[in-house]
Every structure is written in structure tokens, then in C-alpha cells.
Amino acid sequence: MTEHDDSMAEFHWMMDMVQTVDVGIVVLDRDFRVKVWNGFMESHSGMLPSQVQGKTLFELFPDISRKWFERKARPVFELGTRAFMTWEQRPYLFKFPNYRPITGSEDFMYQNLTLSALTSAAGKTDHICMMLYDVTDVAVHKKQLESLQVRMSEQQESLSVKSRNPV
The PAS domain covers which part of the protein (predicted)? Predict the structure, then answer.
């Protein structure tokens, strides 16, 4: 095998990994046009890569606030830093349905988001990579725990009141 064959095989493996990883991967240019749309995104959005490539994120998902998203992405493009969004700050970027409708108690997928700079060989950042993580299970469990804590606190308060005011 030649070095070229090795490089092509490695490229093929990486592309296969990007398509099959259980994380949404979207590559956007400076105009927020979709350049890469992986299998996770296709599966959860119902949109094929051929349907989304070249369109802006805001054309495809008008519910996403352009002003908010541009503010998040600006330091990624300009400084090469990462930007994050957690489900506690904003439950989701893409309102994808919860794909566990029988065992899941939520209608939509809770998401964490990471934006990372993609630097060219020339050292310029003309693209960013958006990585979308499904954290629905984490969010549901945290919400259940918080609800339980509130109920326990209310019960303790009720018992405390009863002990101070015996009948």
C-alpha cells in the first residue's frame, strides 16, 4: 500500500466515524451555511445532507435566534476559542423530538452544544464545528432529583410546623 492509499483509507475511516458517532456534527462557514451534516443530525432532523448543504442555519431553523447565535459564534471565529451552551441555560438549540417516547418523559431532546474553530492550513478560521450532545437522560434525572428535593423540603417544613404546634 502506498502513502496515498494509507491517507485515503484514513480519510475514509474518519468520514465514517463522523457519520456514525452518536453526536450531532455540523460544520458552518462564516455566513452560517451548512457544509457538513452528519448522520446524527440527519436522523434527528429528518433532513438529508443534500437538503441542508449550502443553506443557512437560520433558513433551516427559523426558531434559532440569529443575533444570539452570532454572538456565541463570533469569538470562535475571531479568537479560535470554544463556546458552549448547556441545557440548563437553554434546553435545546434544535427542537428535536425525544427519540425515547416510551421510556422518556420529555417531548423534546435536551442538548448541550460546543462550537469549535476549524483552522485551515493557512491558519484562518473560516469554518466552525458545532457538536450537539443529547443530554436528555441527564436533564430528566436532574429535574426528578430537584423535584424530590422540593417535596422532601416541603414535608420537613410540614413536620416542623406540626411539632411546634401539637394538637
Answer: 12-78
